Amino acid sequence: MTTLLIDNIGELTTNDDELATAGRLRDAAVLVEGNRIAWVGPAAQAPAADTRFDAAGQALLPGWVDSHTHMVFAGDRTAEFEARMAGESYAAGGINVTVNATRAASDETLEQNLRRLIAEARAGGTTTIETKTGYGLTVADEVRLARIAGRHADAVTFLGAHLVPAEANPADYLDLVTGPMLTAVAPHVSAVDVFCETGAFDEAATRRVLEAASAAGLATRVHGNQLGHGPGVQLAVEYGALSVDHVGFLTEQDIEALAASWTGPTSLPGTVATVLPACDLSTRMPLAPARNLLDAGARIAIASNCNPGTSYTSSMAFCVATAVLQMGLTIHEAVRAATLGGAWALGMHEEGWLDPRGIAQPAVGVICPGARADLQLLAAPSVTHLAYRPGMPLTRAVWRAGIRVV
Ligand SMILES: N=CN[C@@H](CCC(=O)O)C(=O)O
Ligand SMILES: [Zn+2]
C-alpha cells in the first residue's frame, strides 16, 4: 500500500482528545496509508512516505460529516422560497411539489442531480453524506430512490413517513409505510426517519413508524420540533433514535431528556440533537438552541439538510459559520459538531459500520490511526477563519478514503 505524508500542518484538528490537547495539534503531520490514517504527530517526528504533500502551514481537519440531507429529488422550489421571503410561512405540504416532480423524473435525471449535489458537497469539504428517500411515497418510488441513493451516499435513510401523499388516506398510508413499503425498502437502507410534526405525522403515527423500524432491525431518526413544540424529541429519546433533527422548539424537559440519553441507566443508544442552521435561516424559523444543548450536556451535530424546500445548500462551512456567529458556539464546538457529531448521529464514529454496499468501513469524523483518511485542508491557518471569513471559498484540498477528490 502506498503512503502519503501530509506535512507542515499549521493547525491540526483531530477530535481525538487523547492524541492532542483539546483535539488539536500545532506544527503537525499526518501519514495516510491506503484508505486509512496510519500516524499522527509532530511534523518534526514524521515518518518517511512514498509521497509528501506540503500543507504550507495551513489548517487540516476531518472532512465534514453531513448527517442529514434529502438529495434524491427532481425540480426546485424557487417560487415557494420567494413567497417565503415575501412573508409566507413554510408548511409541510410543499413537500408534495417535489414528490410530483420526483415521481415524474427518470432514474437518470435523479442520479444526475444527486451526482451534481454530491460533487458540490465534496468541493466544500464534505466526505461523508447521509441522504434520505421521502420524495417518492409509493413502494416503487421509495425503493427506486433508496437504490439510487445507495450508489452514491455513505448512508441511506428511509423517509416514507415524510408526508401522507396527496392521493392517499392517512390510515391506509400509515399501514403501507410501516408494512409493505418498509419491507421493500429495508434491504437498501440502514435507518428509518419520520417527520413528527403538525401536518405530517402525529405522536401515535410516529410511534408506529419507530416501532416498525425497530422490529425490522433498523436504526431510527426523527424530524422533530421543527415548526413548533411537539413530541418528537421525547419520542426519539424514548425509542433510542440515533438522532432527532431540527430541534428548534425545545422545552427544558426536552433538553434534559437529550442530555440524559447519554448518561441514564437505559441500554438504548444516546440521541444526538442535530441542528440545521441553514434550514432555520431559509425558513425564517428561530435558530435551534445549540448553546443550551451543549451547556446541558447533550451531544449535538450540525448538518446541511440539503433539500429543495427548506435548505437548498450543502455548504457545511456556511452552517458552521452560522452556528458560531448566530448560535453562540465556539468555532471548535461547531467544527466538532459538523464532523464527529455527524459521525455519532450516523453511528459511524467507530470502526465497522456498513456502507450501502455492505462493506465495513473505518471510523469517520476523527483523525487518528485507523480512521478513514477523510481530510480537508483549508486555505487558512486556523479553523477560526471558517467563521471569521464567512462565505469565502476556504477549501483547498480534500481527501476521501485516502484519495484526493478536490
Ligand atoms: N421537514 C421535513 N423535511 C425537510 C423539508 C422537505 C421539503 O420541504 O421538501 C426538512 O428536513 O426540512
Ligand atoms: Zn430533513
Automatic annotation (TrEMBL):
Record-listed E.C. numbers: 3.5.2.7
Q: Where does Zn(2+) bind?
A: H68, H70, H223, N305
Q: Which Pfam families match?
A: Amidohydro_1
Q: What is this protein called?
A: Imidazolonepropionase
Q: What are this entry's molecular-function GO terms?
A: imidazolonepropionase activity; iron ion binding; zinc ion binding
Task: Please give the cofactor(s) recorded in the UniProt entry for this protein.
Answer: Zn(2+); Fe(3+)
Gene source species: Leucobacter exalbidus
Q: Where in the cell is it found?
A: Cytoplasm
The UniProt catalytic activity note for this protein reads: 4-imidazolone-5-propanoate + H2O = N-formimidoyl-L-glutamate
